[in-house]
Design a protein that fits this description.
This protein has 727 residues and is an alpha+beta fold. It has 3 domains: 33 residues; 283 residues, Collagenase (Catalytic Domain) (3-Layer(aba) Sandwich), CATH 3.40.390.10; 196 residues, Neutral endopeptidase , domain2 (Neutral endopeptidase, domain 2, Orthogonal Bundle). Helices cover 56% and strands 7% of the residues. It contains 29 helices and 11 strands. The strands form 4 sheets. Strands 2-3-5-4 form a 4-stranded mixed β-sheet. Strands 6-8-7 form a 3-stranded mixed β-sheet, with helices on one face. It has a two-stranded antiparallel sheet with strand order 1-11. Helix 23 crosses helix 25.
Length: 727
């Protein structure tokens, strides 16, 4: 039986060859349009995704959105008071912690870093530590041996005073040992009565170190405290009471102590009178005076200079043609006259008091309490009992910070952060240099040299290399003897060690591995003689930086810090140094004049701000204000470029805010802070930075982009018509 399958031929689509010419053309057109539409849809999709990336709902985004919103006060108009808009909630939620005179995200992060360091210093079971790291642990443990410290009481300091030649506090004193005492307190105890002598890079020859001499010697934070007696009466009284109490603790009677300490305060007041105010010392070209050691004898004959320098810089050999840079020529002349005309007992008491003040924090609780009472008045802190471990962590960081820093970095610093941060610095540098092209007040030749300087700014990120090599690290601390349980002795050994390190620098060339900050520090700096910026590991964390945050917050946080340090290379002081870190006139005169005219705008702007009715000093804060303004501008520009390259990023949930607005809010929130009136007063007098509120308001009111993104009307408080523009 056969089955036939019949295949029916329906009239199906005809072959290409059978199509008419018109049909073919139409088909090609339809296919082309379909392909074009397909690619257009994909492109539009990608572009839409780039420009409408949606909401970031990762855990870090949700957490940070909550923190940012919690710190804000939405009831404030951002164009009216941006600081309160960004920080109002933070200020409300952060009353001053007990015993603190100021509190900010910086302090908060430092407390976290200290807790990490405490854990590392107490963990004595860790294997494979270098000798230097073990010394840090031993130093910390000796500081924590409170029973031993209490048992010794004032004895170690009394013994020290006796060895130095005594003073009129505890008996009659009549000696002609001024030169010997000056040498001992300066060389052995690292005190700086009358003036300070140290080794640092020669500003006019940046590949060599040189002895430098400058003014110093006041017991209060600034000359203003002594000179404006009425306004500062409560501080002066508290200071005198503190000194009297120290005198009594060291065995003097209340009466003798009061007479003696009053003479010291009066002497310091005379010193304050001849001390040059900081704002008059900003132009280094004017205050740099190079001479030979023998010229010091002519300038300030009351000091026996050659034996003094020989002791301070032992064992380095010096002769009287040793070059020296003097930064306070007039002051040195006047202080020499003051020494010559002052009773020798007062001079001696003043020098011994310098040592006593320095040693207070390493003695027993009675001394600590006396200092605490003074600081409560000085900074307006509420009574508190700071845990001993915090003092000890802080002191270990000061003495062995690079050994402790090695432990800290190994525990907290992700090595790949270094590359991310370096890339970010490059982006900020590009932004600064790009803005430089459009600076209207500067001539082309100077502009070219300025670009060359910016090009070669060296970035140090995280930590200096040597701390990760145990042999190198041990070599650095090899001469530092640390003994168990004897804290006072360890501190004295540290002074001895640090004096030898300083002397050793004198004949060496400056070295990039020598940092002025330890790795756990929550800060950053620019060094003009090395033309380098340094970003320690301590600050490369939230709230300044986190790899899982939107770039808007990273550029507004650590990005602005980078821009700030970079701009220091071109502030009123940094601009005097060339690309190799040498102080010399490398600008054309016309540009120097134009710069001064431009910066006068900022001097006036910030001098019009005040805190608790006390006006800011726009001259004294000029360098930092230039850096704040340049830093914000460069970081914002770098962020805009990042978006152009990578597309808009996802927004934070529930913020109802663009990422551009978030950039400015993130920047402001780094500066949220609370402070006692006393601490604010001290800041206005001594700090080269403006108070936090004006670091925010001052910079955003000079930013066109800020007003554009927040829609501020012309002449709103945050959008003045007249803006200061420098870099």
């Amino acid at each position: 039986h056969t089955t036939y399958i019949s295949v029916q031929h329906r009239s199906g689509p005809r072959c290409w060859a059978e199509k008419t010419h018109t049909e073919r053309r139409l088909l090609v057109l339809v296919c082309s349009l379909a392909v074009a539409l397909f690619f257009t849809l994909i492109t539009v999709g990608i572009f839409y995704k780039k420009s409408h990336p949606g909401i970031c709902l990762t855990a870090p985004c949700i957490t940070v959105a909550s923190a940012v919103m919690g710190a804000m006060d939405r009831s404030v108009d951002p164009c009216h008071d941006f600081y309160n808009f960004a920080c109002g909630g933070w200020v409300r939620n952060n009353p001053l912690p007990e015993g603190k005179s100021r509190w900010s995200p910086f302090s908060n992060l430092w407390e976290r870093n200290m807790a990490v360091m405490k854990h590392l210093l107490e963990n004595t079971t860790m294997k494979g530590l270098s000798k230097a790291e073990e010394k840090a642990q031993k130093y910390y443990q000796a500081c924590m041996s409170e029973a031993k410290i209490e048992k010794l009481g004032a004895q170690p300091l009394q013994k020290l005073i006796h060895q130095t030649g005594g003073w009129a506090l505890t008996g009659s004193w009549d000696k002609n040992n001024f030169q010997e005492v000056l040498r001992t307190v300066s060389a052995n105890y690292r005190c700086s009565p009358f003036f300070t002598v140290f080794v640092s890079t020669d500003s006019k020859s940046s590949n060599s170190n040189i002895i430098q001499v400058d003014q110093s010697g006041l017991g209060l934070p600034s000359r203003e405290y002594y000179l404006n007696k009425t306004a500062n009466a409560k501080y002066l009284n508290a200071y005198l009471d503190f000194l009297v109490e120290l005198g009594v603790l060291l065995g003097g009677s209340e009466e003798t102590s009061r007479t003696l300490m009053q003479e010291i305060v009066d002497f310091e007041t005379t010193l304050a009178n001849i001390t040059v105010p900081q704002e008059e010392r900003r132009d280094e070209e004017l205050i740099y005076h190079k001479m030979q050691a023998k010229d010091l004898v002519t300038l300030a004959p009351s000091v026996d200079w050659m034996p003094f320098l020989t002791d301070v810089f032992a064992p380095v050999r010096l002769n009287d043609s040793e070059p020296v840079v003097v930064y306070a020529k007039d002051y040195l002349q006047k202080v020499s006259e003051l020494i010559a005309s002052t009773n020798k007992s007062i001079l001696n008491n003043y020098m011994i008091m310098k040592v006593v003040r320095k040693m207070v924090s390493i003695l027993d609780q009675k001394f600590q309490d006396a200092e605490q009472r003074f600081l409560e008045v000085m900074y307006g802190t509420k009574k508190s009992c700071t845990p001993r471990w915090k003092l000890c962590v802080s002191d270990t960081d000061s003495a062995l910070g690079f050994a402790l820093g090695a432990l800290f970095v190994k525990t907290t610093f992700a090595e790949d952060s270094k590359a991310i941060v370096q890339d970010m610095v490059s982006e900020i540098k590009w932004a600064f240099e790009d803005s430089l092209k459009t600076v209207g007040w500067m001539d082309q030749e100077t502009k070219k040299a300025a670009k060359e300087k910016a090009d070669v700014i060296y970035n140090m990120v995280g930590y200096p290399k040597f701390i990760m090599d145990p042999n190198e690290l041990d070599k650095v601390f090899n001469d530092f003897e640390v003994v168990p349980d004897l804290y006072f002795q360890n501190v004295m050994q540290y002074y001895n060690f640090s004096a030898r390190v300083t002397a050793d620098q004198l004949r060496k060339t400056p070295n990039r591995d020598q940092w002025s900050m330890t790795p756990p520090t929550v800060n950053a700096y620019y060094n003009p003689t090395k033309n380098e910026m340094v970003l320690p590991a301590g600050i490369l964390q939230a709230p300044f930086y986190s790899r899982s945050w939107p770039k808007a917050l990273n550029f507004g946080g650590i990005g602005v810090v980078m821009g700030h340090e970079l701009t220091h290379a071109f502030d009123d002081q940094g601009r005097e140094y060339d690309k190799d870190g040498n102080l010399r006139p490398w600008w054309k005169n016309s540009s120097v004049e134009a710069f001064k005219k431009q910066t006068q705008c900022m001097v006036e702007q910030y001098s019009n701000y005040s805190i608790n009715k006390e006006p800011l000093n726009g001259k004294h804060t000029l360098g930092e204000n230039i850096a704040d303004n340049g830093g914000l501008k460069a970081a914002y520009k770098a962020y805009v470029k990042w978006i152009a390259k990578n597309g808009e990023e996802a927004s934070l949930p529930a913020m109802e805010m663009t990422n551009h607005q978030l950039f400015f809010v993130g920047f402001a929130q780094v500066w949220c802070s609370v402070r006692t009136p006393e601490s604010s007063h001290e800041g206005v007098i001594t700090d080269p930075h403006s108070p936090s509120r004006y670091r925010v308001i001052g910079t955003v009111s000079n930013s066109h982009e800020f007003s554009e993104h927040f829609g501020c009307k012309a002449n709103a408080p945050m959008n003045p018509t007249h803006k200061c523009d420098l870099w």
